[in-house]
Amino acid sequence: MQESFKSFREFYPYYLDEHRNRTCRRLHFIGSTLVLAFLVAALVTWNPWWLLGMPLAGYGFAWIGHFFFERNRPATFRYPLYSLIGDWVMYADIVRGRIPF
């Protein structure tokens, strides 16, 4: 049975539970860092081709983490907006040291 969330605040604990594997979290972090780097590259070079790399890097690394290390189905498939927000909140929590890298 699919869970229903009324807010991101309700969703985030579920999201973190889907990211218990450290390697999965690290792959998410690497993918998100590449997304930021590709955005900067696009802005600095005014070359929009860098923007194509953003979803490939972000989702590619994350999905590898889920399929091969976490062994679960990415939340993106069921909760695309909350999952996208969760990626960046988790990224910030890792940078702040709230979640182990």
Structure description:
It is a single chain. By secondary structure, this protein is mainly α. The protein has a domain of 69 residues. 71% of the residues lie in helices and 0% in strands. The chain contains 4 helices and no strands. Helix 2 packs antiparallel against helix 3. The radius of gyration is 14 Å and the shape is globular. The chain starts with 7 loop residues before the first helix and ends in a 6-residue tail after the last helix.
Keywords:
101 residues; mainly alpha; 4 helices; globular
Count of beta strands: 0
Q: Which segments are poorly predicted (pLDDT under 50) over 5 or more consecutive residues?
A: none
Total count of helical runs of at least 4 residues: 4
What is the mean predicted local confidence, pLDDT? 96
Radius of gyration: 14 Å
Straight-line N-to-C gap: 31 Å
How much β-strand is present in the residues? Answer: under 5%
Determine the fraction of residues in helical runs and give it as a percent range.
over 70%
Using the alpha-carbon principal axes, give the shape: globular
Order of helices and strands: HHHH
Mind summarizing the main beta sheet? none
Q: How would you classify the helix and strand content by structural class?
A: mainly alpha
Quick recap of the structure?
The chain is mainly α and 101 residues long. Helices cover 71% and strands 0% of the residues. It has a domain at 27-95.
Walk me through the topology:
Elements: H1 8-17, H2 22-45, H3 49-70, H4 80-95
Helix pairs in contact: 1-4, 2-3
